[in-house]
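Records of this kind hold a single protein each, on a pair of labelled lines. Below, a sample record shows both lines together.
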Amino acid sequence: MSAQILDGRATAKAITEELQAEVADLTAKVGRAPVLATVLIGDDPASHTYVKMKINRCRQVGIEPRKIELDHSTTTEEAVAAVRRLSEDAEVDGILVQHPAPPQVDEAAVFEAIDPAKDVDGVTSGSLASMAFNEGGFRSATPGGIMRLFERYGIELEGKHAVVVGRSRILGIPMGLLLLGQNATVTYCHSRTTDLADHVGRADIVVAAAGRPELIKGEWLKAGAVVADAGYADNTGDVEFGSAADRARWITPVPGGVGPMTIACLLEQTVQSFKQRTRLA
């Protein structure tokens, strides 16, 4: 393997330790800890696992988690009402609605019920607009985590050709917007893209966010490319890691790459929201 590892686990640990000290200081000044509310709809086992991980990380840094669980038969209207109550609660600083919701729930409508000032997961239309126009605000957590990883390792983005494979509202689309905001030239690819290998082969930076294990073959990559793999299924990413590591300059492992950075970004943005709401920013 010739590629160097973009170590999300180590980077997230460093961010967590920095946040731990900051949150302790902020809590002493304000008289309460930052609060992150998580909304879990239904009984998807993976979603329960992800929420549990996020709650554990909150406690680790001193953020108070507030877990809201809604039954699998919950309607869109009921979920929207629950999120609006959190949006109106002055003691809540951030809101996370765990994806995916059951099929009868209009997930976009639930996202839009989040107060943009508390959208620490970066899923509302307002957050997407802020990312599109590089106006600050909260980043979508996984793309934001990838950007933090690039920052930590000094990955140059300006003038580079980036290919994002995937176009979901919470990952692919905002990832491309954030890269564009750093003056990269961005190509979006997806399930209907023809000649995917050709597009990937011209990229300086590849972000894999399609949710299809080992879709991207190592032999497709341009020599020296930077690869961020946001896929995850049974410890396998969207990129064929072994062959990709032989051609890439930098690459994220799966697990231990993008995943820890998603939670780190969520925690950072919760603390940012807390500071803004308590006028300590």
User: Anything to note?
Assistant: The two ends are 43 Å apart (CA to CA). Strands lie at 4-5, 35-41, 64-70, 94-97, 161-165, 185-189, 205-208, 226-229, 250-251. The domain at 31-114 is CATH 3.40.50.10860 (Rossmann fold). The longest strand covers residues 35-41.
